[in-house]
Amino acid sequence: MTALVVHVARPITLWALHFIAIYALISAACAPRALLDVQVMRAVAGLVTLGAGLLVLIWLFAGSRRLRHCAASAPERPLATAAVWSATISALAILLNLWPVAILAGCSG
Length: 109
Hints:
- The chain is mainly alpha-helical.
- The protein has one domain.
- It is about 80% helix and about 0% strand.
- The protein contains 4 helices and no strands.
- Helix 1 (about 1-30) runs antiparallel to helix 2 (about 40-70).
């Protein structure tokens, strides 16, 4: 049971870390001292998103496989279902975290 709780929590934790990373990159690129070039920020944000997205998709497929092999009356089925939904929502949230980077033409506000 404890392992399934970890399976539910890890995609959400990865999404939160991705959220922090994206907005830290935006802050670094748009700071008055311009610690990063906007193009570098976009490239790094894309790589971070790709890595996080692939990891969550792997967890999603593993959770789906676990759910398929779980009996309908098994006590761990609700947590297995929650793990799949957690990974699905986190994958979508990670993808949508990239939206400000995609529409950011510059740092002029």
